[in-house]
Write a structure and sequence with these properties.
About 10% of the residues lie in helices and about 0% in strands. The chain has one helix and no strands. The radius of gyration is 41 Å and the shape is flat.
Length: about 130
């Protein structure tokens, strides 16, 4: 009686493509390109050699119309105001955005313990 753990039992199902169904012929080079078709502006693929794929230093920037919405015609331009040292920061005026704190007389924060509870705690610690 042999050891059944080490015996190889065929499962009946082979690995890979079935031989009878849709047989594939041998490789024949026919010149058809494989993969993604090449575009007019090919982007360099990732190569793990430590070289970044982005913009090279000294590369000439594109001349396009980005930021055109920031440009103002000459007749619409407003001159900058002259600096006056008033002691207040120059910026956009706060048009009621922040409300100043108005003292109501009520204390803020956690309320202190009542004096009766403090006296009881002292009496217990003395005993």
């Amino acid at each position: 009686m042999g050891n059944k753990l080490n015996e190889v039992v065929p499962s009946g199902k082979g690995r890979g493509r079935p031989k009878g169904k849709n047989p594939k012929g041998p490789y024949v080079p026919n010149g058809k390109p494989r993969g993604r078709p090449a575009s007019d502006n090919p982007k360099r693929g990732y190569v793990p050699n430590g070289m970044p794929r982005g913009r090279k230093p000294g590369q000439v920037a594109k001349k396009d119309n980005r930021g055109a919405h920031f440009r103002v015609a000459d007749h619409l331009k407003v001159a900058k105001q002259e600096y006056v040292p008033t002691g207040n920061p120059r910026g956009r005026p706060s048009e009621g955005k922040t409300v100043k704190y108005v003292k109501t007389g009520k204390p803020r924060g956690r309320q202190p313990k009542p004096k009766e509870a403090e006296e009881e705690m002292e009496e217990e610690s003395d005993e």
